[in-house]
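Note to self: keep these together.
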Amino acid sequence: MLPSRSLRPRLAAGLLSVLSATACTSVPQREFALYLQAFEAAREQSENVLADYGAARAARAEERAAHAPAAAGELLSRRLGLEAIETAAGRAADDVAVRLAAWRVVDAYDQALVALARGDGAASVEAAVGALVQDLRDFPLAVVAETAADLAPYGAAVTKLLGLLEEELRARRFREAVLAAEEPMRDFVGLLRTDAVLFRNYRVGWLDARFVELELDLFERAERFAGILAQGDWEPDETALLARRVADARQLTAGVETFPAPVPDPARAGDADPAHMLELRVLADEIDERAAAARALVDELGAYHEMMRVYALLLDELEREITALARAVREESGQLPSAVQLGELVDGLRLAQRIYTETR
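Structure:
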């Protein structure tokens, strides 16, 4: 039986409405999935950056302990750096734990925004907001209180966010809770950006110190090499080859010579002193080795700087994406900003991390 003429316009309009809704929601759903994939990839690459910082802290602390001079009368365990178990590694692990927890909070907030922007049901939104609050409650505030000042802002941000969200949750205003958290969450992402500068400066400072140590070591050995040449009693042909090797090692970075090129004076050549020749060979080998290590540090620093430059850009883009997503929720537009730029930065960071790893 066909519907009456009076019902046909309404049925047609209803069918058109269903088709329109299907057409409008299919593309955004795909965009939401792509956005979530890009965000997860950004988080994964950021955790790699964080792991590198933790490794640098632990390695530098161990290096300092190994080179610290022992005072007369100190306990043997202290002289050997064995008075405690993994104290340096423990501090680095605390740093990593706090910042991993920070990323979990940002991720949970992002999930809550997506649930609202996507138009998920009330139960899904409530669950997403509840997960955010739980991550805030699980944040290691005790560790923050016991560690360095650079972690203190996280404690203040978490306390502020938690108080704000719990007030809205008591009134069961889940949408309002997520939107009210937008500005504090932007500050939270800002802490991750501040961390990027901290991470970069920490490893760069360590690389600088290692480079200077190698450069001074090279200078001292080159001076010793030149001193033996001045004494005379060396075999001219082999000594000329050794001097050329030493001269090739003097330039570690473009346009900068660590020491003057040694020039054997033929007038000082004569009956080769075996002790002189042995020391010249040893010094040339040591200078080659240290010059190679210093040049490797130059490559490592360049690759690390590029990695952190891309990481800073990624954090900037992440903040823009979260802000745009919050705007979509507030305006109920059902639209999501393109995640293309975020995805490209993730790919760029992944490449930069691979290059950096290969230089180490």
